[in-house]
Input
Amino acid sequence: MAALAPSALPPAREIPSAFSASVRSWWTVGEKASAVAEERLLRRLPFFGADSGPVVAKSLRVDLATPKHYLNTVAITSTSPSPNAPPPAVLLHGYGAGLGFFFMNLMSLAGWANKRGTSVYAVDWLGMGRSARVPFVMKASRKDTHARVTEAEAFFIDSLEEWREKMKLEQMTLIGHSLGGYFSVAYALKYPHRVNKLILLSPAGVPRDPNATTAPERELESPPTSSNPSTASIEPATQQKVDEIRAEQSAAKARPSRTRRLFMHLWEEGWSPFQVVRSTVFWGPLLIGKYSSRRFSGLTEEETRNMHDYILNITLAKGSGEYCISHILSPGAIARMPLVDRVAALKIPVTFIYGDHDWMDPQGGEDSVDSLRKSGNGNCRSYIVNNAGHHVYLDNPEAVDSLVVRELDRVPS
Output
């Protein structure tokens, strides 16, 4: 995609506050509008689209072998590559999101790429973001859980492996958020020699506990800020801290909710939340506007408008990879094949990062670290980032960026 000059970018639409605004937003979505919305976020990087400098960043469409299959990519590359450079870092977003969600983290990671003479990539999963919206059809029997999960995982991780080959990368450090964290682990299990490290930001599908405290409807809430400004931004995930987070989750989950019951029913029937939004026709942009302004209340007014515009475009695009979720996760975001039962096979450094107001159960990370260490892998850590929820990298970007860079540079023991 050719870089647009800043003056060529139209202003972001206001967050819809009336029916007429919803109508205007609905009719202006599409591939071109989606590209503009994404670039508006990326233009916050002073080196985006530049031809020279310590690092350069550009948008790519990486075509795969299957016709009309491609992965939308942002590449940030050092112009002074080091012969001893570490493997590049690859950012992988969560369910129904896109690479634009990492817009506040790319500057810090670009600094790391410049310092280490390497590259950073952000990639949209096949069927999500601005990657190809190809049909997702499950062939396995609904009763065969293993086959369903394996097939759904392969749709994503095999396309990532093909992307790696196209990009001529020997190894990668995967930084995955939520479902992107789940797929990062699945990829590392299937292609172990291609992964240098795993950094998992509030990963989905980790614990096995059927009574886990995850409550997906809390995604609609903005995490509260700490009343104690002296609280450290980052701390190890001690059992006491994990128990505090789970107690908060349990209290929220105990509240009666008709929305939760409807959500669980639609989930099992194979619907996606985005399909529900699309079915509301003209009210879709209004619903998205309410979500973006409420969930990302820590952003500036302009950042919120830009995020709304971006989320609107990728949400109203043709449904595709989003239909995988009911095959991988049962209602409540509990994996049908939990990662905690699979991670022991990993022999690479693995870092779990949760927010102190997360709705993902951090006990899964603790149990996974314990399992990995028992298998002989001592290069595993779990951390809590304060003043952050599930979108930990957006809620407290400074803390997460410093921790991620530290983990990227950490030498395995």
The first strand starts at residue 55 and ends at 63. The CA atoms of residues 55 and 79 lie 5 Å apart. Residues 145-167 form the longest helix (23 residues). Confidence is low (pLDDT under 50) at residues 1-7, 15-28, 226-230.
